[in-house]
Write a structure and sequence with these properties.
The chain is of the alpha+beta class. It has 11 helices and 18 strands. The chain has helices at residues 224-230, 235-245, 251-263, 267-276, 285-292, 303-314, 319-331, 335-343, 351-358, 362-371, 375-385; strands spanning 2-5, 9-13, 22-26, 35-41, 47-54, 65-72, 77-82, 85-91, 100-111, 114-123, 136-139, 151-157, 162-167, 171-176, 182-187, 193-199, 204-209, 214-217. It has a 4-stranded antiparallel beta sheet, with no helix packed on it. A 4-stranded antiparallel beta sheet has the order 8-9-10-11, with no helix packed on it. Strands 12-13-14-15 form a 4-stranded antiparallel beta sheet, with no helix packed on it. The N and C termini lie far apart (61 Å). GO terms for molecular function: clathrin light chain binding; structural molecule activity. Residues 221-244 form the Clathrin heavy chain linker core motif domain. It holds the Pfam family Clathrin_H_link.
Length: 386
């Protein structure tokens, strides 16, 4: 899909087939005589944003003014705002099965001689009776030498949930999307930046400067978590970054937090932390043993089953987890659950799992042996059938 911006309107033109351009919306008055520098569409193609810049106020013309038009396709309605850069992202709010659509935009305005620079993050589609993202904002701190600098682009890393704000004079601001916490600021180019693009697989961005250089900026996976926990002294953000990006550097913090939650008998929170632990550092036999050791209260779900249930909602179980969960359901004569999980590829096949299942179902055990490539057991199982 191509986006075409004219002096008065915006069109979408499919690159497939021979269809004509389709008009999406008319430009709002705040974008008249603006230089258009960006146009974006949200991941679900329900929201559009157009960004333009214009000369600044007479008392400070060098501080360029930014204007934004946000358009809802469903509502067929526009909103005019002041902003130099914007981008959309998806965000999964805990307790809500459906991802929220967020817009983040950066502003730098002059009011009564005072410059205000802000980053805003807003949920565009709060769902009835569902948890929604709480609006966030933060200051953009420009060094004294960059008083007239302004944002020209924004990219959001879904891999790390980080917001990158890039300025005309080559400054890069990095913010955490969930909390709007400032993570990093540095100059990445001595030459003006005029174009950026997302580097989605790397969790960063590409930028092109006036000299013609193509720059790549992304996270140093080995150092960002220790930097946030040490230099920024933000342990909670360090743990969250490690969990969402599966990054090293927070192992001690995660284990410590798990032990604290477990000691407070917050087994659900403990299970969630273990399930999301970076690089699976808590998904061990020791963790299973801890949940097994908790006395089961009458009428309550055993903490071990809570743990396995959370793991299953997050993805697949490893070999040890698969064996222990299967042992539980076999002992409870709930073979149908086992069959369902195997059909959904939720369990890891192993010879040990086949041996366990063989006590209740030879045919199902044979399937497991075949998947686990336990050849001697496969041969023996076929021999028993004769």
């Amino acid at each position: 899909m191509l986006g075409l911006v004219t002096q008065t309107s915006v069109y979408h033109w499919s690159i497939e087939g021979d269809s004509e351009p389709v008009k999406m919306f008319d430009r709002t008055a705040n974008l008249a005589n603006n230089q258009i520098i960006n146009y974006r569409c949200d991941p679900f193609a329900k929201w559009l944003v157009l960004i333009g810049i214009a000369p600044g106020a007479p008392e400070r013309p060098q501080l360029v003014k930014g204007n934004m038009q946000l358009f809802s396709i469903n509502q067929q309605r526009s909103q005019a705002l002041e902003a130099h850069a914007a981008s959309f992202a998806q965000f999964k709010v805990p307790g809500n099965d459906y991802p929220s659509v967020l817009i983040s935009f950066a502003t730098k305005t002059l009011n009564a001689g005072q410059i205000t620079s802000k980053l805003h993050i807003i949920d565009l589609g709060a769902q009835p009776r569902k948890p929604s993202f709480t609006k966030k904002q933060a200051d953009l701190f420009f060094p004294p030498d960059f008083a007239d600098d302004f944002p020209v682009a924004m990219q959001i890393s879904q891999k790390y949930n980080l917001i990158y704000v890039i300025t005309k004079l080559g400054l890069l601001f990095v913010y955490d999307m969930e909390t709007a916490t400032a993570v990093y600021r540095n100059r990445i180019s001595p030459d003006p930046i005029f174009l950026t693009a997302e580097a989605s697989s790397l969790g960063g961005l590409y930028a092109v400067n006036r000299r013609g250089q193509v720059l790549l900026a992304t996270v140093n996976e080995q150092t960002i978590v220790p930097f946030v926990s040490g230099q920024l002294n933000n342990l909670e953000l360090a743990v969250n970054l490690a969990k969402r990006g599966n990054l090293p550097g927070a192992e001690q913090l995660v284990v410590q937090r798990f032990q604290e939650l477990f000691a407070q008998t917050k087994y659900k929170e403990s299970a969630e932390l273990a399930a999301e632990s970076p690089q699976g550092i808590l998904r061990t036999p020791d963790t299973v043993a801890k949940f097994q050791s908790v006395p089961v209260q009458a009428g309550q779900t055993p903490p071990l089953l809570q743990y396995f249930g959370i793991l299953l909602t997050r993805g697949n179980l490893n070999a040890f987890e698969s064996l222990e969960l299967s042992r539980l359901v076999v002992n409870q004569n709930k073979k149908n659950l086992l069959e369902n999980w195997l059909a959904e590829d939720k369990l890891e096949y192993s010879e040990e799992l086949g041996d366990l299942v063989k006590t209740v179902d030879n045919d199902l055990a044979l399937k497991i042996y075949i998947k686990a490539r336990a050849i001697p057991k496969v041969v023996a199982a076929f021999a028993e059938r004769r």
